[in-house]
Design brief:
Blueprint lengths: L2 E2 L2 H17 L6 E7 L3 H17 L2 E7 L5 H13 L5 E4 L11 H5 L13 H9 L3 E4 L2 E4 L3 H12 L8 E5 L6 H10 L3 E5 L7 H4 L4 E4 L17 E4 L3 E3 L2 E3 L4 H4 L5 E3 L5 H20 L9
Parallel strand pairs: 1-13, 2-3, 2-4, 7-8, 7-9, 9-10, 10-13
Antiparallel strand pairs: 5-6, 11-12
GO molecular function, one term: methylenetetrahydrofolate dehydrogenase (NADP+) activity
Pathway: One-carbon metabolism; tetrahydrofolate interconversion
EC number: 1.5.1.5, 3.5.4.9
Length: 296
């Protein structure tokens, strides 16, 4: 029998804890979200972030721009947002449309490390590689994790899943899932294989994996026959089919094969939003000189 990892339930626990922390602050935290274009999936994710932020007591302002905006104009606007000093966290909703996505790193570079609540910039990638995933102000440090990675680790802790000495396959090499998870999993003692779009047959690797983490965004790219019996699977991918969100894992064929499954939607997604807001609260606590649960 496959155990379903309930990310939604755990997200509610995290949200409750965050509300308590926000109530102790003299100023409520603020998050700025930059949204470009008319991507329905991105718009839905942003609405969810706004709704959860409101529940926690975090201000969340969305700066929306058209598909036609140039990299130069978006850079000017983004610089204005971060110079305002109002926001504890600033994020760019990915993916960006068209040619803008090619310039995402130059845009992400504008966000200071101590406001990059998504931990997506090149500097943050370097921090993850070197194990220095913290920001510091006035002698105080606070640890941050990329939200998807944080969500997976919280679920693992909840269900007593260890990564040490495990063979783990990461399916996908994207900015949100594959890239941040690789160094973090290695630091946890795992042996990690990464499958990309250039991998000829991912099943060669997934069949021998103790744990599979997928973040490709292609519906049902992984089926039960591609997995080892008793494996653990985290689905961090999503795509829209006929107006409905679905994940990378074919749930029906996987059930009964794997020991544990975090499905998409409803697994990593809700918890990722909570973990993003956890970063915002931690950064606000740092600015307000309040001891955070993530203080080092």
């Amino acid at each position: 029998m496959t155990i379903i990892l309930d990310g939604k339930k755990l997200s509610l626990e995290v949200i409750s804890q965050l509300s308590e922390r926000v109530n102790k602050l003299t100023r409520k935290p603020d998050l700025a979200v930059v949204l470009v274009g008319e991507n329905k999936g991105s718009e839905a994710f942003v609405r969810n972030k706004q709704a959860v932020a409101a529940r926690v007591g975090i201000g969340c302002r969305v700066f929306k721009y058209p598909n036609s905006i140039s990299v130069k104009d978006l850079s000017v606007n983004l610089n204005g947002i971060v110079r305002g000093e109002k926001y504890d966290g600033v994020i760019i909703q990915l993916p960006l449309p068209g040619l803008l996505d090619r310039s995402r790193y130059s845009l992400l570079r504008i966000i200071p490390e101590d406001r990059d609540a998504d931990c997506l910039s090149e500097k943050w990638q370097g921090r993850l590689l070197t194990g220095r995933n913290f920001v510091e102000q006035k002698g105080k440090k606070v640890e941050l994790l990329p939200p998807v990675a944080s969500a997976i680790f919280k679920l693992a802790d909840k269900y007593n899943i260890s990564f040490e000495n495990k063979n783990i396959v990461l399916v996908g090499w994207g900015d949100l899932v594959g890239k941040p998870l690789l160094p973090l999993l290695v630091r946890k003692g795992a042996t990690v294989t990464v499958c990309t779009s250039k991998t000829k047959d991912i099943s060669v690797f997934t069949k021998n994996a103790d744990i599979v983490i997928s973040g490709v965004g292609k519906a049902h790219i992984i089926i039960g026959l591609m997995l080892k019996r008793g494996a653990i699977v985290f689905d961090a991918g999503y795509t829209e089919i006929d107006g409905k969100m679905t994940g990378d894992i074919d749930i029906d064929s996987v059930k009964g094969v794997v020991e544990m499954l975090s499905p998409s939607p409803g697994g990593i997604g809700p918890l990722t939003v909570a973990c993003l807001l956890e970063n915002v609260v931690a950064l606000s606590e740092l600015r307000q000189n309040v001891n955070s649960k993530r203080s080092l």
